[in-house]
Amino acid sequence: MAAIHELSAVLSNQIAAGEVIERPASVVKELVENAIDAGSHEIDIIVDEAGLKLIEVIDDGSGIEGDQLELAFHRHATSKIDDRKDLFKVRSLGFRGEALPSIASIADVVMVTSTGGEGQAIHIAGGKVLSQKPAEARRGTDIAVKDLFYNVPARLKYMKSLNTELSKIVDIVNRLALGHPQIQISLTHNNRELMRTAGRGDLLQVIGSIYGMNKAGKMLPINNADADFKISGYVSLPELTRASRNYMTLLLNGRYIKNYQLTKAIIEGYGSKLMVGRYPVAVVNLEMDPLLVDVNVHPTKQEVRISKESELSEIVTATIRAKLSEQNLIPDGLTNLRRGQVDPKQVAQDLAAVSATRGSHQGISSKATSKPNTVHPEPVQSTQREQAPTSGALFDQKPSDGSENPIVIRSKDDLNSAAVSVFEEKYQQPSTPFNEPVPGAASPEDKAKPKPQETELLDQQDRFPNLIYIGQFHGTYLLAQADDGLYILDQHAAQERVNYEYYRQAIGEVSEDQQRLLVPIVLDYSTSDMLKITDKLDTLAAVGLHLEQFGPNSFILRQHPTWFKAGQEADTVKEMVDWVLRDGRLTVAQFREKAAIMMSCKRAIKANHHLDDQQAKALIEHLKTAENPFNCPHGRPVLIHFTDTDMEKMFKRIQESHHSLRSEA
What's the gap between Cα 629 and its chain centre? Predict the structure, then answer.
């Protein structure tokens, strides 16, 4: 065993840096917290290459005296506590005295500071003081951290992409800004300003600058207090939700913290008003006596111990529940109402445009003829009303050259005109709601050709019973019989399976067919989310979503895959983008799988939907061709089986004899 010896100060600081400084965002957090503790009113943060090249924090705080400047970079040197008692009533954000020496041990640091008189500048690299000299400086501190991790390159291999690291910086700056709305904070990356708060003490204004003013308009103020705690902040209406908990900010005496119990309390305050898997946007500021909280638990001070945590959780839940109970929670339906209105003249014009250009755009007609609310194994634009607002192709056609006149229907008699008859003979195919080709099924012409999958298809059909449809039960279950007994099918799960296998193939093929939007979809996100999405634009493009940057915090979508359900384009896009934000490691294959499951569920018939005999029989026939006809994409069973023996036992047609019962006894 080697001899015991004391580690050098530089090595000790580098070890401490492993706990305190995980990534560039950790440096930003520590330096901005120091600026806040110094009583700053304005803090400017300048970052290059996501903080790996440069992190500079400029504040107008109290500054540091020249004779204490070098001491500030010694480990456990601090101005915020003096004795053991102070450790249990910490009011400042920092107090350990570890941040500056840890940062200086793994970077090249230059600090210029002044308390109002002559300034001082110090240069430290790798934990060693290179120079200290007088300098011209205004009141406050300017600290520049360059070449982070330059002397511990092994740390660099754990860094993510530049956009990911930058999003971490933006996120922590957002949290600090929410905790201190009275301070003007700006963040600039590569000479581009990413965010700026006004510093007027208006929390709602800060929320608006981070998440957007449209979202700030859907936030509700909360206030409550008892003998130990004071609660304030904003929570969103139930209609404004996100796919992860990352949009809930907990502030304890101005410090951003992570606490599972309090986060759960916020969610419980909404009760059943939130959809499964959705979370509110919330900024909850908790004020309490410092004696009731222990911040000396974790090096980053984001995890704390709170005395009377259960009582505080109950107050948070009750405060949010009481606030929501006062509100009219009916979402504004005006937009949806306008979207659903039909202008007969406009529909006639659109149909005329389709007629005039049918020869060159036959793909539109094949989708516009199907009926709404019927079971389809293939996604379709279901009605004229649904197609009109989204089909930009209808409005992009060039005027007719006169070779074919448009058909205009003004009255019922016009349906019997010669032009309509010619149109029907040329374009319209006789169809029922279920005679569209099943995904993967062969056309009549193709059936004559030998297929390599024929043997596999026969095997699938052998596994699936030959069902004879009987009827429907409560608009939800289909009853069918076979030679081996009774089968009950869940109609929603059955069509989910049929749809899923279609979408899995359609999304995987990434067809060039795109539906242009008359009115493009604009998606607004916070800066940190924008950076995460930018990193995943290739993944989104792989499933047909081509997002273009549209301003500093927005994306625009001008077209979408044709398999999107009409009327749900924006919701579908937002849900797919939420997957990227929720799980940044999502692969293209996983993304396609989730998209297929989502679309299959959206397009499937629901419970209490009554089908006629033809529709029910067609659904069963389509289910036979599925690769896995036994489970829906979520794993639920599609059908259950009662054998003849099971039925006879239930009706006591088969009973065990008294003799057999006595022998068992």
Answer: 31
* CA pair distance 363, 515, nearest whole angstrom: 11
Instruction: Say which DSSP state 487 is in.
Output: E
CA–chain centroid gap for 459, Å, is: 41
Beta bridge partners of 477: 473, 490
Query: Can you give the pTM of this predicted structure?
Result: 0.64
Phi-psi region of 126 (alpha: psi -120 to 50; beta: other; left: phi over 0): left
| Cβ–Cβ < 8 Å for 354, 364 | yes
d(CA 164, CA 180): 25
Q: Which CATH architecture has domain 218-326?
A: 2-Layer Sandwich (3.30)
Beta strand spans in 376-529 (E): 468-473, 477-482, 485-490, 514-524
Q: What pLDDT, on a 0 to 100 scale, did the predictor assign at position 616?
A: 85
Please state the domain extents for the chain.
Answer: 9-194, 218-326, 468-642
Burial of 476 (0-12, 13-18, 19+ CB in 10 A): middle
Q: What's residue 17's pLDDT?
A: 63
Q: Cα separations (Å) of 381 from 428, 429, 514, 525?
A: 16, 17, 13, 29
Nearest to 163 by CA among 536, 574, 552: 536
CA pseudo-torsion sign 54, 58, 62, 66: positive
Tell me the CATH number for domain 9-194.
Answer: 3.30.565.10
- Pairing state between β 282-288 and 248-252: parallel
Contacts of 638 (CB under 8 A, 6+ apart): 489, 490, 493, 494, 497, 623, 629, 630, 631, 632
- Residue 621: burial class (beta carbons within 10 Å; 0-12, 13-18, 19+): middle
* Measured distance CA(648)–CA(236) in Å, rounded: 57
- The correct answer on CATH 3.30.70.260 for the domain covering 468-642 is no
Could you read off the pLDDT of 460-518 as tens digits, one per residue?
Answer: 555 788 888 988 888 888 899 888 889 998 888 888 888 787 777 766 655 566 778 88
Same CATH topology for 9-194 and 468-642: the answer is no
CB 598 within 8 Å of CB 506: no
CA distance linking residue 302 with residue 259, whole number of Å: 9
| Antiparallel, parallel or unpaired: β 248-252 and 554-561 | unpaired
**Within 13 Å, how many C-alpha atoms sit on residue 563's CB side?**
30
Structure tokens that stand for 516 in this block? 């242009």
User: Helix 569-582 to helix 527-535 angle, to the nearest 10 degrees?
Assistant: 90
Q: Are the C-beta atoms of 208 and 216 separated by less than 8 Å?
A: yes
Contact between residue 532 and residue 484 where contact means Cβ atoms under 8 Å apart: no
